Amino acid sequence: MIELRNVEKFYETRAGQTFVLRRISLYIKEGDFLTIMGPSGAGKSTLLAILGMLDSNWTGEYYFLGEAVHQLKPRDRVELNKRYIGFVFQQYHLLDDLTVYENLDIPLSYRNIKRSERQAIVADTLDRFQIVAKKDLYPNQLSGGQQQLVGVARAIIAKPKLILADEPTGNLHSSQGKEIMELFKTLNAQGTTIVQVTHSELNATYGNKVIRLFDGWLNDSAVSA
């Protein structure tokens, strides 16, 4: 599903180039549940942003479902993202001027789904995440944990082929966090490919593979299946 070949990212500074990622080569099969771990500043979130086609300022090769992402125009990358990828952001990234209901409807609007069907899907998702009472509220009226739940709901609502999750349970109570991880496990068993960034060894046990980054380098000896 995904293949990275010698992907690197750096920033130009007065002292020269400061690398965030170095020579990352990685293969992710369809149906994998991959966990990316490593200390703060190791490049985990940067790698996730590249996989999600949210960052285009890097070098190397990236293939997604047979498409050479590194050769695509920005508009085509955006379309690929909308069609196949759901992203759970660490900082939520909900649209502040839209209600919870409207935030959940956005991913469905990118697809050719009738309005009546979208309404039914959003209603089911609100119920599934027990946030029906929050549907008319705006993000700034929600707690951090509630925003996180909406963020997860938005990522999965359109049944993407790939879910990318950056610390998906970081702001949730332990019981809520367990429910989210169990949900990811179920989706993965149904064929959804999942890549998560986490500091939690417990969350890592839900997946089938772990990679570890250190100072932007992939530690090959730390890859496990």
What does this structure look like?
With 225 residues, this protein is of the alpha/beta class. It has one domain (31-58, 74-222): Rossmann fold, CATH 3.40.50. Helix content is 34%, strand content 27%. The protein has 7 helices and 10 strands. It has helices at 44-51, 74-84, 100-109, 115-128, 144-156, 174-189, 201-204, and strands at 2-13, 16-28, 33-37, 59-64, 67-68, 85-88, 162-166, 193-197, 209-214, 217-218. The strands form 2 sheets. It has a 6-stranded mixed sheet, sandwiched between helices. A 4-stranded antiparallel sheet has the order 2-1-4-5. Helix 6 links the parallel strand 7 (162-166) and strand 8 (193-197). Helix 3 (100-109) crosses helix 4 (115-128).
Distance between the termini: 17 Å
- Count of distinct strands: 10
Any idea what the CATH superfamily is called? P-loop containing nucleotide triphosphate hydrolases
Number of domains: 1
> What is the name of the CATH architecture?
3-Layer(aba) Sandwich
Structural class: alpha/beta
Specify the helix fraction band: 25-40%
Q: Give the overall shape, derived from the CA principal axes.
A: globular
Largest sheet: 6 strands, mixed
CATH class: Alpha Beta
**CATH topology grouping:** Rossmann fold
Order of helices and strands: EEEHEEHEHHHEHEHEE
Content of β-strand: 25-35%
Radius of gyration, whole Å = 18 Å
